[in-house]
Specification:
Blueprint (H helix, E strand, L loop, with lengths): L4 H10 L7 H40 L3 H14 L4 H13 L3 H14 L5 H12 L3 H12 L9 H13 L3 H17 L3 H22 L9
Helix pairs in contact: 1-2, 2-3, 3-4, 4-5, 5-6, 6-7, 6-8, 7-8, 8-9, 9-10
């Protein structure tokens, strides 16, 4: 049995009559120290990740968004395989209208979870904001094919409705926007629901113009 670290230190420093040589003791001590340090290194990321999340919460409560953003960017570098950090950074960038940056985070999230619908929805939402409607619809379809809860959210239907409206698919856009508005109302997100209602009205106006106006005469 290999003696413990504390026992070996005591043998080396205080007991010269032991048969274990100093060189051997030092060698074993070095091995044990290395093992202990590796164990600490493995535990540290989890502690640091938790600490960062707590710091983010504090910064956001105090409205220190810029500091929170810098902390998020550092966290993604420190923990590149942590999807929580990716999603948090993505959400911040979307709120700040940093859509190209958010798209990169969505792509990184897809690399971490290629079999999950959620990152494809996030990517499609970023593409929608960038006006890349055809690519966004491909993303929405990809996510929907996975049959998960991510495609039942209000933001999913709103984003897809915006794309369809932008591409002139008015009737289908109206259907998605109506669902989105009702879902936002259910969750008491009144302002988001109103946005969808306004988009729905735009879709109705487009449909009316396409049919030739209120008197049925096609517009030239």
């Amino acid at each position: 049995m290999i003696p413990t670290l504390s026992t070996l230190v005591q043998l080396v420093m205080n007991n010269r009559e032991e048969k274990i040589s100093r060189i051997f003791c030092i060698f074993v001590i070095a091995i044990l120290l290395s093992t202990n340090l590796q164990g600490l290194a493995q535990k540290q990321p989890e502690q640091s990740s938790t600490s960062i999340i707590e710091q983010l919460s504090v910064l956001q409560r105090h409205g220190q968004t810029k500091k929170a953003y810098e902390l998020l960017k550092e966290a993604v570098v420190l923990f590149p395989k942590d999807p929580i950090m990716r999603i948090a950074l993505y959400n911040y960038q979307m709120k700040q209208k940093m859509y190209k940056e958010a798209l990169k985070e969505a792509d990184a999230y897809i690399a971490l979870a290629p079999n999950s619908a959620s990152p494809y929805v996030l990517r499609a939402l970023a593409l929608t904001k960038l006006g890349q409607f055809n690519d966004a619809l491909i993303g929405y379809a990809k996510a929907e094919s996975m049959h998960t809860g991510s495609t039942s959210s209000a933001s999913f239907f709103e984003g897809r409705g915006r794309c369809k409206l932008g591409l002139g698919n008015v009737q289908s856009a109206k259907a998605d926007l109506q669902i989105a508005a009702l879902k936002y109302l259910d969750s008491e997100e009144i302002f988001l629901a109103q946005d969808c209602v306004d988009l729905y009205k735009q879709a109705e106006i487009k449909a009316l113009n396409h049919r030739g106006g209120p008197h049925g005469k096609a517009r030239k």
